[in-house]
Amino acid sequence: MFLANNQTNRSKSGMNIESLGATFYIVGLSYKKADVKTRSSFSVSKANQVLLLKEAKVQGIDGIIILSTCNRTEIMGFAKHPFQLISLLCKYSHGSVEDFANVSSVFKNKEAIRHLFDVATGLDSQILGDYEIVGQLKSAFKLAKKQQTLNAYLERLTNLVLQASKKVKNTTKLSSGTTSISYAAIQYLMDTDPHFEEKNILVYGLGEIGKNTCKNLAEYTQCSNVTLVNRTPEKAALFVKEHPQINHQTLDKLTQEIEKAQILIVSTGAEIPTVSKQQVRPDKRLLILDLSMPENVDLTLKQYPGIELVNIDELSKITDQTLAERKNEIPKAEAIISVYKAEFMEWLDHRKFTPAVNALKASLTAMQKVEIDFQRKKTKDFNSEHAQLVTSRFIQKITTQFVKHLKDEQTTTNQSIEVIAKIFEIKEDDN
């Protein structure tokens, strides 16, 4: 903030974070560079997400959100160097800095803003248009808000990103149909087993993906032998009330239900495998679709000759034929994003430039008053109203030109503000 001729111009709430030496980054990894095993090692549990945000506050990081899903783990926030965020991610996951360097992406300022818009609208999803990420982003936003790690920049950006996502969802066909990881599981069954509807299917886990999988089985197939097992029986009982064609069993019956099943769909959210070799007969024939991240099925089950184990990376490959229509919608989605992104940049410019511009205007206005008073006393029949009108127009033109200069992408904003401050004796407000 600035003082012009000892008059306070604005409160400190308008100061831009970048003036404090911090930059907006998004650091992380996704399906684009990291396979499912690597992504699993960098997955951050809910408990560790809270610890990560708390430590960020202790370190003085102003504004941070952690997003950890089956396809990506990303930290978005302000730091003097991206390694501040990277080290937090590695500390609260099982990944190392060396491994991160091989598969990571680092976005800065405008690139980071665009990346977040792409993620929230499904343009950056493993399955184009996948809308499940929106709920996960909202949860990450709420957690950051609860832990008080949001600042005005992140709050405004996230709100506009979610608005753009809703507009894309409602006005384009980018997310049309039911193509998602949960639907990809059903599509896999349809493509690989013409008799799957006659088989016993067990769904283990009722998180967001598990719930969608059960709904897709009920809505898009004629399966009559679907059983649900969930750690919380009350949640499962409530779900099957709405979908009576699906049975449910308690967790203590899991091994028995696996024995009955010919198809097992796992969508639990544990940090360690929830289905082990001990729960499956060595000679059993069983197709297992693991939709979890980290993987929740013991990989040594592949040693059994009758076990076919498919993970989410393999499932994603089968959806290519369903995406042609969605690809045609990309220009529409990008046009919507450009509107909301422009709105954010305009807000950011206003937040960034207004204190300096107002301080300059106040300084020029003070000069104007002094000079008009001087000429009124010195010059006979001096027309002060005419002089006020003419000089006010000059002040407006000067400040408008200054705003244009600051908005130019080639401008080093802080340096330009410092130069103007020195020329017009505008001092930083220490109040």
Please, could you describe this protein's structure?
The chain has 431 residues and is an alpha/beta fold. The chain has three domains: 2-176 and 329-345, Glutamyl-tRNA reductase, N-terminal domain (Beta Polymerase, domain 2, 2-Layer Sandwich), CATH 3.30.460; 181-316, 3-Layer(aba) Sandwich (Rossmann fold), CATH 3.40.50.720; 353-428, no CATH class. Helices cover 51% and strands 14% of the residues. The protein is built from 16 helices and 13 strands. Strands 9-8-7-10-11-12 form a six-stranded parallel sheet, sandwiched between helices. Strands 4-5-3-6 form a four-stranded antiparallel sheet, with helices on both faces. The chain has a three-stranded antiparallel sheet with strand order 2-1-13. Strand 4 (64-68) and strand 5 form a beta hairpin. It is elongated. It starts with a strand and ends with a strand.
Keywords:
alpha/beta, Rossmann fold, 16 helices, elongated, 431 residues, 6-stranded parallel β-sheet, 3 domains, 4-stranded antiparallel β-sheet, Beta Polymerase, domain 2
